[in-house]
Amino acid sequence: MTAEELQRQVELLIRQVAHWEAPRWAARAGTGDVSRAELMHALVQRLADRAAGAEGEPHRRVPRLDNDLVLPDQLRVLTADLVAAHPPPPVLATSAADVVETRRAL
């Protein structure tokens, strides 16, 4: 798995959701008992945790902002952080699979 493939999957997800307004983010996700926004934030947090791990840093909580419309931007930034940390291919593969799974669930 390459960083480019992860970034491609992230861009597909962002294109899917970037135009959503607050009610659509607040709707229940297709899987689980969480909102779409909560599902997306959980993905962002997992990517942040993997970036911290690749950098040898402790995990830090990604703030859950009041405005769900920023979630695509948070995803983009945390993906860039992960790629910049140069994680091993299995971490990139797991992350890309996570993005694909999230896309399907939304």
Your description of this structure?
By secondary structure, this protein is mainly alpha-helical. It has one domain (3-105). It is 67% helix and 0% strand. The protein is built from 5 helices and no strands. The chain has helices at 3-17, 22-26, 36-55, 71-84, 89-105. Helix 1 runs parallel beside helix 5 (89-105). The longest helix has 20 residues, at 36-55. The radius of gyration is 13 Å and the shape is globular. The mean pLDDT is 95.
Can I get a quick summary?
By secondary structure, the protein is an all-alpha fold. Helix content is 67%, strand content 0%.
Features:
mainly alpha
Largest sheet features = none
Gyration radius, in Å: 13 Å
Q: What percentage of the residues does DSSP assign to strands (E)?
A: under 5%
Number of strands: 0
Residue share in helix: 55-70%
